[in-house]
Amino acid sequence: MKRSRALERIHASKTPFDVVVIGGGASGLGAAVDAASRGHSVALFEQDDFAKGTSSRSTKLVHGGVRYLQQGNISLVLEALRERGRLAKNAPHLVRSQAFVIPNYSWWQGPFYGIGMKVYDQLAGKLGLSPSRHLSKEATIEKIPTIETEKLVGGVIYHDGQFDDARLAVNLAQTADELGANMVNYAKCTGLVKENDSVSGVKIHDLESGQEFTVAAKSVINATGVFVDGIRQMDDPKASKIIAVSQGIHIVLPKSFLPGNAAIMIPKTADGRVLFAVPWRDHVVVGTTDTPLEGHSVEPRALEEERDFVMTHACKYLTKDPTPDDVLSVFAGLRPLVKSGDGSDTAALSRDHSILISGSGLITLTGGKWTTYRKMAEDVIDQAETLAGLDHKRCQTEDLQVHGWTKTEPKQFNLAPYGADSIRIEELIEGDPTLAEPLHPDLVTQKAEVIWHAREEMARTVEDVLARRTRNLLLNAAASIEAAPEVARLLAQELGRNEAWQKDQVAAYQTLAKGYVFTNPSSTARK
Predict the structure, then answer these.
(1) DSSP E strands: which ranges in 305-400?
(2) What residues form DSSP beta bridges with 147?
C-alpha cells in the first residue's frame, strides 16, 4: 500500500470515481472495502491517519453488546453477534475468543445474569463462540485470581470477541488497496464540488505536499465520525447538527492486576455503563466511561472525574488496588451518537448506525460500532449504488478475508497482529539482523516493524507507528516517548526525510504522548 501510487492514480483518472469516501475510520474503511470488492472505482481521503480518532480508542472488543440486550434492543444484538462471527472468520489473526466473568455479589445475580447470558448465546446461534455457564465462588476465584472476594458468591462465564482496532483498520486499508481502491491519509476534504445543486466531487488539500485538487465522484460518502456535521454544513450551511458526542476513557495496567486469561465484566456501574477489565497484549485495559461533551477534538483527553471513576471501580473489584503510578497509559475516545431528544443522556442512546442523504445527494454514515462496521458498509454502498445510478452488485464482504488472514501463529509474540505479513517482517530481520533489536527495553516492538510500517502500511509519522501500527502509546506511554527518536530515525531513512524533520517529529510526539501518561509526564518508563 503506497500513498504516492494512490495519488498518482487519482490524478490520472479521467472519469469520476464511482464512490469517494471522506474519513478513514471503521465506517469509511469498511465502505471502501465493500465498494471496491463489488468492482466500483473508489477513492478514500482521511485528514489524519487511518483510525486516528475513535476507531483506535475502543475497548478492543468485538461483541454483541450485553447492555443493548438489557435495553431490549434485540435487533442490534442479533446483528452484532452475526457480525462478530463473520469478523472472527475473516480476520482470525486479529480476532479471538475471550472469556468474561461476571462476578456475583448477591444471591440473585447468578440466575439473573445466567439467564441473560443464555439468551445471548441463543441469539448468536451457529456463530456463537462458547456457551455460558455458572461458576462457583471457588471457580470464579480460579478464573480471576485478583477478584475482590468479600461477599462474592460466584459468577457467570461467557465468551465474546477481542481484537486490535487500529491493526484491523490498517489491514482494511490494505484490503481496499488490493481490491483497487485509492487510499490516502493526511489528505483533508476542504469542500464539496456541485453541479446543478448536486454533489459531484470533493476538494482535497494534501497536507504533505500542500497541493490542492478536486476529485470528481458519482457518489460521496461522509464517514467522518464525530466530524460528520462539519461536512454536512459544507453541503448545507443551515444543516442542523445530528451528533451527540460521548467520551469514553480507559486506563492500561500491568498484567499483574489481572494475571489469568479471563476478563471481568461488571454489568452496571454508577453511571449505568458496563465496565470491563480485559487482558490485552499482555496488559490489562480497564474502562469505560460515558461522558456527554459539548465539543470534540482530534486528540481528546481524559477528564479528571473520568480517571477517578475508572480508578475507583478498578479498586472496588480488584484485590490489588492500582495507584496512579501503576497506570501505564490513559486514553480517551469519542463516540458519534445520533441525537435523540436533547441528547443529554448519551448512555441511553443506541449504537445503531444511521444513513442520511441530503437534498444534494451527500450520503452521511454515522453511529454504529466497530463490530458492525461490515454491515454498515454494506448498507451505505447499497444506498450509493441506487443514488448514483451504479450497477447494483451483490455485497462480497460476508466471507471476504481481510489482509493478513492466517490461522498460523507467528513464532514471535510481537508479530502476531501482522498475521501472514509476519513472514515478510522476519525476512527483513534475516536480511539485517540489527533490525531484530527492540525499540526500547520496555517495549516488544522490533526495529524491523518500523521499516515495514513505512514501506507497506503507509505510516508517515512517529505517531502513526507508536500509536496505531504498534500500540505502544497505549501500552506504555512513557516508554514510547523514549523510543520516539529511534522511530524518527528509521522513518526518516525510509521516507527520505532530513534531520530537522526528525526533531520536529520527536517534539510533536512527545507533546502528544505526555497526555497519555497518568502521572507526572517526566516519569520514567515502567513495565
Answers:
(1) 329-338, 353-357, 363-367
(2) 318
How many CA within 13 A on the CB side of residue 349?
26
Average confidence (pLDDT) over 411-421: 94
The closest alpha carbon to 263, from 475, 134, 97, belongs to: 97
- What would the grid cell of residue 188 be? 483533508
**What band does 72 get if pLDDT is binned at 50, 70 and 90?**
low
Q: Name which of 200, 255, 283 is nearest 15 in CA terms.
A: 200
Cell of residue 420, nine digits? 501472514
Q: Which residues pair with residue 201 across a beta bridge?
A: 193, 216
User: How many alpha carbons fall within 13 Å on the CB side of residue 303?
Assistant: 13
- Structural domains of the chain sorted by starting position, each given as residue range(s) with its CATH number in brackets: 3-54+167-242+348-388 (3.50.50.60), 84-162+244-339 (3.30.9.10), 413-514 (1.10.8.870)
pLDDT top residue among 362 and 524: 362
HSE-CB at 414 with a 13 A cutoff on CA atoms is 20
Contact 256, 241 (CB under 8 A): no
User: Exposed, middle or buried: residue 180 (CB in 10 Å: 0-12, 13-18, 19+)?
Assistant: middle
Distances (CA, A) of 131 to 95, 96, 107, 119: 18, 15, 22, 10
Give the model's pLDDT for residue 340.
58
Whole-model pTM? 0.94
Among the listed residues 90, 76, 93, 95, the one whose alpha carbon sits nearest the alpha carbon of residue 30: 90
Q: What are phi and psi of 471, to 5 degrees?
A: -115, 30
CA angle 101, 250, 521 (to 5 degrees): 140
Q: Quick one: pLDDT band at residue 24, thresholds 50, 70, 90?
A: very high
In the chain, the N- to C-terminal Cα span, in Å, equals 33
d(CA 138, CA 133): 14
What's the average model confidence in pLDDT over 293-318?
91
Rounded to the nearest 5 degrees, what angle is found at the Cα of 29, between the Cα atoms of 215 and 348?
120
* CA distance readout (Å), 495 to 7, 59, 205, 294, 461: 16, 32, 20, 39, 10
Q: How far is CA 460 from the centre of its chain?
A: 19
b/e code 288-326 from CB counts within 10 Å (16+ = b):
bbbbebeebeeebebeeebbebbbebbeebbebebeeeb
Cα gap 276→292, rounded to integer Å = 20
